[in-house]
């Protein structure tokens, strides 16, 4: 096959020239294939773990042992499993929040700020309305968190809708604003006077805490999250509004021509997106930390982006992926005893997203023989 | 020095990282590919600069390492967006998340370690007598001078050379450029790699000149501000210079107000650059409501040469 006829030689033998044709392939997008197969997600995760193994080995550790310890720490004990679920709750809620925005191609990366806004909103109830029974406090906290998160979402949506400002930049800038506001509150006006200078509010009273399951740390926030999963699924699949969202996501021009008010939808979706992340913040302060404090979120809002993406915005997929990433965070903590930084989990998260994008695209291509 | 002079001096020192990142972003986006990974690239540039400088003690190796790592990440971004035609927004986001995670992981052991030297300065002593100019330009470091030269080079390159014309062509209308025989994919690879190197250098400049110890997440949103600056500058290197210095000044204005002794808590003063970014973008959106934004026409759309089925 490698023998090419010398220049100037005229081959009259038709069959001979055909067999001498170079074997070549081309790599092109397969128009018939829209979705990548489910196993591609698993392949991507495995490849991402292999890629990160290089960095772990560079730190002088055996990657296999590290991964084994992470897995054991996250899933192989009762404590590990409940911790994983505790971490999965804010990831699931924030993930649902960003997923609904991504459905109509609004790139909300401000879940972190909306989470913090929700946490601040819920804590405001404990500061200004301290003496109330639980049956009143928790619902009021939810309302405050929804309003605070919703306002934070609207602050991203309004510039986008009325001034064509890229929502990626706005939502990220607002994350820093929310974190600085949190720092101000816990270092200054809301600081616990008896807290030995710890940057946090006083501990909540029993009436201000979410009930937990038995003697674990697993709290009622899990129920909130699962209820919202069902609402999301039902709304997107079976209501007229959900149909309009899917139409906008599939083809914005077609949706506009069909008379759908896209600006209104972007506003509503961003408020909902912020409100859901706000509930995550509320469930974290009332269910886990029991106080508002410095560094309340170890980046849940950013991890949620990957959680939503890996689940392909499917609400039930989100349940699985949030547990997986909750486990990754817990596993990251458990390898600290081996002398590895817990940021190993954020490194793996980023790598998974990269391989996922590549995997999803590669499975849309097909290999074809030329000629 | 009076307050205005202080602010101008600070504008240069804190604006230079933004300038490098904006110039890199302009090169990438002019070729028609969105660049949203600046935050991650800057963090990687900073952590690589810190690690290499601490371990080798040589500024030359440090800058080389930063350029290599920036280029490698650029190669990754271009493989995803140009060859695989992945969504450019998501790929940029992945770059940011991966860069923050990996830099935190790599930088854990050197957190808080001061770097063993500083970037050499060029002393122009004859400028010392001149009031404002002297304070601003007499003792700048070589990276800052390099960024100023780069602005002029980038401007001349984009607007005065045939290569620059090709760059604008593949960003505005890749199909036409392809017909003209310009290798669109290869050029996009090249510009993404060079631009990512510059953004990595922005992180290195932040670490080597502006705040010389590594802290996790030390860019604090500067990568995203640089993304906004590309829009303010309307994809033009000369405008990028003024925009970057304006934001450099905004970055430090809170600190200066605090020094004067104001009653506003410092947390609110630190919000200034972020809020100004949103407000300026809103103003631009309002002003340009009936005008083109100046963005490359094919920005964000992967180029697919007509394929046979």
TrEMBL record, chain A:
Protein's cellular compartments: Cell membrane
Keyword Cell membrane applies: yes
Pfam family, one: BPD_transp_2
Membrane topology of the entry: Multi-pass membrane protein
Transmembrane segments: 38-58, 79-102, 136-156, 168-187, 218-236, 266-286, 292-311, 318-336, 342-362
Organism: Cohnella thailandensis
Keywords assigned: Cell membrane, Membrane, Transmembrane, Transmembrane helix
Name this protein carries in UniProt: ABC transporter permease
Lineage, highest ranks first: Bacteria, Bacillati, Bacillota, Bacilli, Bacillales
Entries under InterPro entries matching the protein: ABC_transp_permease
From TrEMBL, chain B:
Chief subcellular location: membrane
Pfam family for this entry, one: BPD_transp_2
One annotated GO molecular function: transmembrane transporter activity
UniProt-listed InterPro entries: ABC_transp_permease
Residue spans crossing the bilayer: 6-28, 40-56, 62-82, 89-107, 136-158, 189-211, 223-247, 267-286
GO cellular component, one term: plasma membrane
Keywords, comma-separated and alphabetical: Cell membrane, Membrane, Transmembrane, Transmembrane helix
CDD domains recorded: TM_PBP1_transp_TpRbsC_like
Location of the protein in the cell: Cell membrane
Bilayer topology annotation: Multi-pass membrane protein
Name by which UniProt lists this protein: ABC transporter permease
Species this protein is from: Cohnella thailandensis
Lineage start: Bacteria, Bacillati, Bacillota, Bacilli, Bacillales
